[in-house]
Amino acid sequence: MGDSAKDSSAGICFKRSTKLGFAFWLPAAWIVFVAFCGVSANLWGLPEPDLMDWNNPAAVPGTKGNILILEQSGEGVERLYIHLLGTDTLGRDIVSRLAYGARVSLAVGLIAPGIGLVLGGILGMFAGFYRGRLGAIIVGTMDAILAFPGLVLLLAITFYLGASVQNLIIALGILTVPAFCRVARANTLTFAEREFIQAARALGENEMSILIREILPNVIMPMIVYALLVVAFMIVIEGALSFLGLGVPSPTPSWGGMIAEGREVLEETPHVSMIPSFVMFLTVLSFNLIGDSLRGLRDTKEGQL
Fold first, then answer.
1. Is the pLDDT of residue 64 over 80?
2. Element containing residue 70 per DSSP (H, E)
3. How far apart (Å, rounded) are the C-alpha atoms in residues 270 and 263?
């Protein structure tokens, strides 16, 4: 009876470990909230992110101020706003810039890894499944991209194509391709010689069908987990590039740009940089926690099998 009770309790513990818990749902709720704020920013009655309150530069949270707004008739009208989180060094509302900046930061963080996930996943699966000369060419190309200084690529794209959100996303997306290619190749090599692949070949399935129906379902989950970690890294990279002048050009708001603009008054009014820094911190931490939760869930299910 004692052994059966232990087995029963062990089974209960194992069942609980296969469920997504607090460490997943709370970060997921924060990501949904940030995304909602970015999408619906223009519905809240917030001032435009580039409108300036000339009388209240670097104002503390809760400051009341007037912002001059141009009507369609061309006349200027002053409206009263309460700057809940204060203003930046130019008198622009921080809440408004955080909400509109979420669009840019999440776009960079999600689309750039998405490019790497698709291109790197396809190339990695081909390299791991076909091997031989094709695999050597793909691996050699990825090694060359990894060896090329990423900062030089960003400088070249900014110089020839101009600084913009689209160009930044493309450049960062290209730089993520080799990492995703390696993850896809490693997982493809693991499954390529399994019994179910041999059975599919024996049943007459062609190689493309095996790649799509047999390999891809087993490779996609590890890549999605890795992509969530890369999303967090891309958001941080966008912020770091703003300090080098390679980020999103002003006056387009982004969290990294807000942090960079507030460094000049960090001692006098630290909230100008610290508030967007805290929002970025929570967002990056949330993506990391979601990725770790999904990875733990995948490892548990694999252990069960």
1. yes
2. strand 63-70
3. 8
User: What type of residue sits at position 141?
Assistant: T
pLDDT, tens digit, 9 for 90 and up, residues 123-135:
999 998 888 888 8
What contacts 56, CB < 8 A, 6 or more positions away? 63, 65, 83, 87, 91
pTM of the full structure = 0.82
- On whether the CB atoms of residues 117 and 180 are closer than 8 A, the answer is yes
CA distance 101 to 244: 18
Q: What's the rounded Cα separation, in Å, for the pair 256 and 104?
A: 10
Task: Give the chain's radius of gyration (CA, Å).
Answer: 24
Nearest partner of 251 among 92, 139, 112, 141, judged by Cα: 92
What's the CA gap between 98 and 254, in Å, rounded?
7
Structure tokens at 185: 């190749």
Cα separation, 91 vs 59, whole angstroms: 7
